[in-house]
Write a structure and sequence with these properties.
There is one protein chain. By secondary structure, this protein is an alpha/beta fold. It has one domain: 3-Layer(aba) Sandwich (UDP-N-acetylmuramoyl-L-alanine:D-glutamate ligase), CATH 3.40.1190. The chain contains eleven helices and 13 strands. The chain has a nine-stranded mixed sheet with strand order 5-4-1-8-9-10-11-12-13, with helices on both faces. The chain has a four-stranded mixed sheet with strand order 3-2-6-7. β6 and β7 form a beta hairpin. The protein starts with a strand and ends with a helix. The mean pLDDT is about 95.
């Protein structure tokens, strides 16, 4: 049985080098749900990914990547008339800046009929994000169809709003995210998401609003401030871990993958979030979305050093 199925859009990454030539870019891989899937696989979960790729070199590179990482590709289909998406990461005084070449991507042409419904119904957990929904109306329909199939089969659903207003207007983002919260067992927003969706509300007010929208559990990811975890009856603030951070790209996706993995391993949500905090911290110690994602042994070693500190 597959533990986790993630649905969404992978993107080829070009990350600005920080060496002698700031105009040079290093090729890597990204896309929030793909990052989540790889993070979960590196941490020991059995993972599959559902998307559409272009019949291009970048699409083949993703197939090779997921195969190396142990992410099953049975749910990957191909679009001959569209390309695999690309994005660029630049680094400056205000942090990292993203530029995308994804309009009309193969993943954005995903439709409900492309979903591997038997695979989804057999999985223990389904994960999707607001980006999975924002890339097109048909992809949004596919995500809701996947939610329905997973819930009907008794699987857990995790959802990261990952709001990107360059992809859709705020009123539509709010409406779709609100509807998705009612479909998920665990909603995993970032503080940036909360600032957009709830405009300055306190962390507790954000968690309360997400519960009212229908999510049974909430983890509000607050970066250097740690996270707030609520299962509807108990609420706890879990501190972040200090590391030599150089690039936060993909850290929230790593958190999602680690949290889901540990939930399925039997941890309670508070222990799972503590573990995910460590994994996400380690993911910021290297450049790019995928390369620095930790493996289980990395998190175990880091946990041991924290216990001795």
């Amino acid at each position: 049985m597959t533990d986790i199925i993630a649905v969404g859009e992978p993107l080829i990454e070009f990350n600005q080098a920080r060496a002698a030539d700031p105009h040079a870019y290093q090729q890597g891989f990204g896309g929030d749900t793909s990052n989540m899937a790889i993070a979960a696989a590196r941490l020991g979960a059995r993972v599959a990914y559902v998307t559409r790729l272009g019949t291009d070199r970048f699409g083949r590179m993703f197939v090779d990547l997921w195969t190396r990482e142990g992410v099953a590709i049975d749910g990957v289909t191909f679009e001959a008339e569209a390309a695999t998406g690309v994005y660029f990461v630049a680094h400056g005084a205000n942090g990292h800046e993203f530029s995308y070449l994804r309009a009309g991507s193969a993943a954005s042409r995903m439709r409900p009929e492309h979903l591997p419904l038997p695979m989804i119904r057999a999985a223990r957990l389904l994960h999707a994000s607001g980006i999975s929904q924002a890339i097109s109306a048909t992809a949004c329909d596919a995500v809701f169809a996947a939610f329905a199939a997973a819930r009907d089969a008794g699987a857990l659903v995790t959802y990261d709003p990952n709001v990107r207003l360059k992809l859709w207007p705020l009123p539509r983002a709010r409406a779709i995210v609100q509807a998705s919260m009612a479909c998920c067992d665990w909603c995993l927003p970032s503080q940036d998401d909360a600032n957009v969706l709830y405009e300055g509300a306190s962390p507790d007010a954000v968690v309360d609003a997400i519960h009212r929208a229908g999510a049974r559990g909430v983890v509000l990811k607050r970066g250097a401030e740690g996270c707030v975890v609520s299962d509807g009856t108990r609420r706890e603030r879990i501190a972040a871990h200090r590391v030599a951070s150089v690039d936060a790209t993909g850290a929230g996706d790593c958190f999602d993958g680690a949290f889901a993995t540990r939930l399925l391993a039997g941890d309670d949500p508070f222990a799972a979030a503590h573990y995910a905090n460590m994994a996400a911290a380690l993911a910021t110690t290297g450049y790019g979305a995928v390369a620095p994602l930790p493996r289980a042994a990395d998190v175990e070693r880091f946990n041991a050093t924290q216990a001795l500190a």
